[in-house]
Amino acid sequence: MQTFDQRRATFQTFKRENPNWQVTYQVCQRDSPIYQRIRCCWNEPGVGRHVYQPVLNVATGDIFNDLSRRYIFLIHLGLAVYVRPLHMLLKTAWHLSIIAPFFFEIFEWACGRRKNSHVCMQNMKDSMADIVRTPLYGLTLVAHHVIALVRALYAPNTLYQMRDQIGALERRLYRVETFHERKAWFATFCFSPAKNLIPRHQGDDPAPSLEMLAQRHVQNLRNSWGALKGVYKSSL
């Protein structure tokens, strides 16, 4: 997993090699000098022009969903009061039961989704450690939500910074680099970067174009709406 300093160093190299990157990606400062915006457009044949303006961390190259400060504030409020405490209790109970994670790993191994027994054993060790780690991280995350709400009252732009920090804490709890790697227990997908402006590892996909970012965003929205409609129809 890349640390913040490693991501910053990698992106600084990218900026030195591409001095006109801000013009290329149409970077514009709207609220914060660090968490700025990039303008992504896609002309879809037969539909029209889509405009997507995600938030870009100009220090690390991380791209976040285009949420307004008001919306981020409401998410912090809901997470601090309701979601995060319940999430912490359920996840702690899961690991504390011991038997539930054990049978889950057996099921995953039997279905071929685990490469070997060593992976299962490591996951069980992680689950045992999470009996202690989950409440500690949970309390830390709740504290961060409360701090974010208080700071937002006099410095609303700090909501972007706190969103980034909370997302990093949650990914550290699950021992992943991106939320795409493990979605089951994530409570705040929108607090983690959806993409990075440059490849994180050798062999990754090349840097996405603005048109590609807008196209992926529209397709994700359509997929999410289609899934919701499917759930609604199946419940009738």
* Rough outline: globular
Question: Structural class given helices, strands, pairing?
Answer: alpha+beta
Strand order of the largest sheet: 1-2-5-6-7
Number of helices: 7
End-to-end distance: 44 Å
Radius of gyration: 20 Å
In terms of per-residue confidence, which ranges show pLDDT below 50 for 5 or more consecutive residues?
Answer: 227-236
Helix content: 55-70%
Quaternary = single chain
Order of helix and strand elements from N to C terminus: HHEEEEEEHHHHEH
Strand content: 5-15%
Number of strands: 7
Average pLDDT over all residues: 80
* Total discrete domains: 2
Largest sheet: 5 strands, antiparallel
Q: What does this protein look like?
A:
It is a single chain. This protein is an alpha+beta fold and 236 residues long. It is built from seven helices and seven strands; from the N terminus they run ααββββββααααβα. The strands form two sheets. It has a five-stranded antiparallel sheet. Strands 3-4 form a two-stranded antiparallel ribbon. α5 packs antiparallel against α6 (158-173). The radius of gyration is 20 Å and the shape is globular. It starts with a helix and ends with a helix. Residues 227-236 have low confidence and may be disordered.
